[in-house]
Design goal:
Blueprint lengths: L4 E5 L4 H12 L3 E6 L2 H14 L4 E6 L7 H12 L3 E6 L16 H26 L3 E10 L3 H4 L6 H20 L5 E7 L14 H9 L9 H11 L11 E4 L8
Parallel strand pairs: 1-2, 1-4, 2-3, 4-5, 5-6, 6-7
The protein binds NADP nicotinamide-adenine-dinucleotide phosphate (NAP).
């Protein structure tokens, strides 16, 4: 049987790495994308160690650069396989933060631009670059956040960027439905064991985030990966144009 080709962006750490492993466990061929080559190589080695014979291919790319779409297309064409599913985990929290209200408009703009580039454009570039190379019946999954519902730190650029993905998912679902391609977003709450917060959250903030959940614990990357896997597999084929929240009850549904 010809393996499915799955593309996972942001696959060198956290949720993306767990997602790449989940598909490798299923004997899919996985293309793993991230900017940093060394961390990407380590992620591939880690997955290969736990999934012997895994068919993994790393590709170092900055997906906030539009030129990466072409590089990605060349790479996919060289595999000779259509893309079955694309999971856009690449994203980050802006390092810069706008000042207190009205004090620093320039810093606020920088925060919003960084958030938009890192969380929206990385998805748009990967999706629009790969759509012509996707097989009918495949799936696109974008990664939002509970912050899209509740707001985020700084002056809110991160949460707003994630909310922009919701609208994009609905547009994609309508555009791609006739090809049998589903498009959904996963909106996680706090997930431990990722590198999204650099060296980690301050203990007090982490305790507060865990206390906000009904289940009194953080999510795990493998739990988010399982939902992505479901959306890209036949049993999840009728789910499209949805934002699926997975947050231990820290934010009520809908
Ligand atoms: N962790 C959480 O609690 C949480 C909660 C809600 C939503 N999310 C969302 O879930 C997704 C995954 O988060 P995570 O926690 O797994 O983050 P993470 O551990 O920081 O991993 C992010 C991945 O994205 C890659 N990346 C970042 N910018 C990129 C770019 N411009 N081009 C290509 N790759 C890029 C990173 O590698 P390089 O830096 O080497 O490129 C890394 O592989 C993100 O969209 C995040 O916003 C996470």
């Amino acid at each position: 049987m010809v393996p499915r080709l799955i593309v996972v962006t942001g696959a060198s750490a956290g949720i993306g790495k767990a997602t790449a492993k989940r598909f490798a466990d299923n004997n899919d061929k996985v293309l793993l994308i991230a900017r940093g080559r060394d961390r990407l190589t380590r992620a591939v080695e880690e997955i290969e160690a736990s999934v012997p014979g895994a068919d993994l291919e790393p590709l170092a790319l900055d997906l906030s650069d539009a030129a990466s779409a072409q590089t990605l297309q060349h790479h996919i064409k060289a595999t000779g396989l259509p893309v079955n599913s694309l999971l856009c985990c690449a994203g980050s929290v802006p390092r810069s933060e706008g000042g207190p209200e009205g004090t620093d408009v320039a810093a606020t703009l920088t925060e919003w631009q960084e958030a938009y580039e890192a969380n929206v454009l990385t998805s748009v570039i990967a999706v629009e670059g790969l759509l012509p190379l996707m097989s009918d019946g495949g799936s696109v999954v974008l990664y939002s956040s509970v912050a899209a519902y509740r707001g985020s730190g700084g002056t809110g650029g991160y949460g707003a960027a994630k909310a922009a993905l919701h609208s994009y998912v609905h547009t994609l679902a309508t555009r791609l439905g006739p090809r049998g391609i589903s498009a959904n977003a996963i909106a996680p709450g706090y997930v431990a064991g990722t590198e999204l917060f650099g060296d980690g959250l301050p203990a007090a903030r982490e305790t507060m985030l865990v206390r906000q959940t009904a289940l009194r614990r953080a999510g795990e990357p493998a739990e988010i990966a399982e939902l992505g896997f479901y959306l890209c597999s036949p049993p999840g084929g009728y789910v499209t144009s949805q934002i699926l929240q997975i947050n231990g009850g820290s934010h009520h549904g809908a």
